[in-house]
UniProtKB/TrEMBL annotation:
The gene is hisS. It comes from Sutcliffiella cohnii. Residues 1-325 form the Aminoacyl-transfer RNA synthetases class-II family profile domain. This is Histidine--tRNA ligase. InterPro entries: aa-tRNA-synth_II (IPR006195), aa-tRNA-synth_II/BPL/LPL (IPR045864), Anticodon-bd (IPR004154), Anticodon-bd_dom_sf (IPR036621), His-tRNA-ligase (IPR015807), HisRS-like_core (IPR041715), HisRS/HisZ (IPR004516), HisRS_anticodon (IPR033656). GO terms for molecular function: ATP binding; catalytic activity, acting on a protein; histidine-tRNA ligase activity; transferase activity. CDD domains: HisRS-like_core, HisRS_anticodon. Homodimer.
Length: 426
């Protein structure tokens, strides 16, 4: 039996890969506008990083990591997300020492989670994410949300919903935590095993449980927004005010808790509201993670960021029937007939390409008709034709496919002729 691709992964073939490249370019353009710089970190890290960074009571750490022992006996994990790695690198490379702060980073790369594959959920997926480290200014919370919204809009998406919440600072979170314990404890035996162990370790996670989400205690659970202290409340008010100033519509959802442990204050998600998008509607998630840098061994530094997967972005574009504004065509197809002409075509092609002309020829000894067919299939704008006779006379025939116009051009002028045609000078 032939070997098949692992479950939850996908091949991105020519024809589709151009869409990915287009999205990645857009993301990079927007990061340039907002002054976020690219960072590339390894695809695997010491497992310890994610235990500490993502949190050992999260589903990601408990159930979804690709961890293995390497030949040196170290526990290694394929990164399930990018924030912990970005923070590790920030600390290890002392980026906090750079005079220009906050440190504004972005990344695009594959992440790995052993999840049950379904629409929008892969085991290897590509995240685009940004992280801003070193600022406690609520305007940067609004900035990262605006950046994500801008990216989606620049790609043509319209059916978006920004959902935001505040998880408060440590004091607020602790007060809320206690209220959650008091709320769930008397009836915790009615909940799943996971929730029972979450009760003492991290009761906020109970609100995110998929199995028990219909339990009556879920709807009546104390809301974090009631436990925000004044400082946390003021912070949150400023973030949403900035969003309003930027014209970004949002909904406040006190039940938004996110699946990672490192969040304080702002937490947000961007959802697709397209009909038929499927059951997983979250396109993007992020928030503020004051405390994470210290957890990973660095100086006290606040941070905020988000990540979104290109897979879900593409599905959202499909659901909204958004088209890509690029064409997949070549400039010039070289048809050579006869032995000598075929040999000469190698150099002709090389010269065209050196001049920035996208050029192709036949490599399979095809007949004339089949070569013209290939030129059509590749949507060549020009077809250059010559045989041994023309080669001896030093001329080629150039056909402009759109108009059908045909001209005889000398060999030495071919590159200039096509360049000028292409740029509209001729
Ligand atoms: P997350 O919510 O775990 O957050 O993931 C962020 C986004 O990654 C999701 O909204 C979704 O678009 C995509 N995603 C996650 N899992 C999958 C999957 N199995 N298949 C396809 N797409 C997926 C984080 O990863 C945080 N590091 C975000 C962050 C950055 N917070 C602060 N900075």
């Amino acid at each position: 039996m032939s070997i098949q691709i692992p479950r939850g992964t996908q091949d991105i073939l020519p024809g589709t890969v151009e869409k990915w490249q287009y999205i990645e370019e857009k993301a990079k353009e927007i990061c340039k506008l907002y002054n976020y710089k690219e960072i590339r970190t390894p695809m695997f890290e010491h497992t310890e990083l994610f235990l500490r960074g993502v949190g050992d009571t999260t589903d990601i750490v408990q159930k979804e990591m690709y961890s293995f022992e390497d030949r040196g006996g170290r526990s290694i994990t394929l990164r399930p997300e990018g924030t912990a790695s970005a923070v590790r690198s920030f600390v290890e490379n002392k980026l906090y020492g750079n005079p220009q702060q906050p440190t504004k980073l972005f990344y695009i790369g594959p992440m790995f989670r052993y999840e049950r594959p379904q629409a929008g959920r892969f085991r290897q997926f590509v995240q685009f994410g940004v992280e801003a480290l070193g600022s406690n200014d609520p305007s940067i919370d609004a900035e990262v949300i605006a950046l994500a919204v801008d990216l989606y809009k620049s790609l043509g998406l319209k059916n978006l919903k920004v959902v935001i919440n505040s998880l408060g600072d440590k004091e607020s979170r602790d007060a809320h935590r206690q209220a959650l314990v008091n709320h769930f404890k008397p009836r915790i035996t009615e909940f799943c095993g996971d929730c029972q162990s979450r009760l003492e370790k991290n009761p906020l996670r109970i609100l995110d449980c998929k199995k028990d989400r219909d339990h009556e205690l879920m709807g009546t659970a104390p809301s974090i927004l009631e436990y925000l202290n004044d400082e946390s409340k003021q912070y949150f008010d400023k973030v949403v005010k900035f969003l309003s100033d930027l014209g970004i519509q949002y909904e406040i959802d006190a039940n938004l808790v996110r699946g990672l442990d490192y969040y304080y204050h702002t937490a947000f998600e961007i959802m697709s509201t397209s009909e038929g998008f499927g059951s997983i509607t979250t396109l993007c998630g992020g928030g503020r993670y004051n405390g994470l840098v210290q957890e990973i061994g660095g100086p006290e530094t606040p941070g905020i960021g988000f990540a979104l997967s290109i897979e879900r972005l593409l599905s959202a574009m499909e659901a909204e029937n958004v088209s890509f504004p690029f064409e997949d065509k070549i400039d010039c197809y070289v048809v050579a007939l006869g032995e000598e002409a075929k040999e000469a075509s190698v150099k002709v092609l090389y010269d065209l390409r050196k001049a920035g002309i996208v050029a192709e020829k036949d490599y399979q000894d095809k007949k004339l008709k089949a070569q013209f067919k290939a030129a059509d299939r590749l949507q060549a704008s020009y077809t250059v034709v010559f045989g041994d006779d023309e080669l001896n006379k030093g001329v080629v025939s150039v056909k402009t496919m759109e108009t059908g116009e045909q001209e005889e051009v000398s060999f030495s002028e071919l590159v200039t002729y096509i360049s000028e045609k292409k740029s509209g000078e001729r």
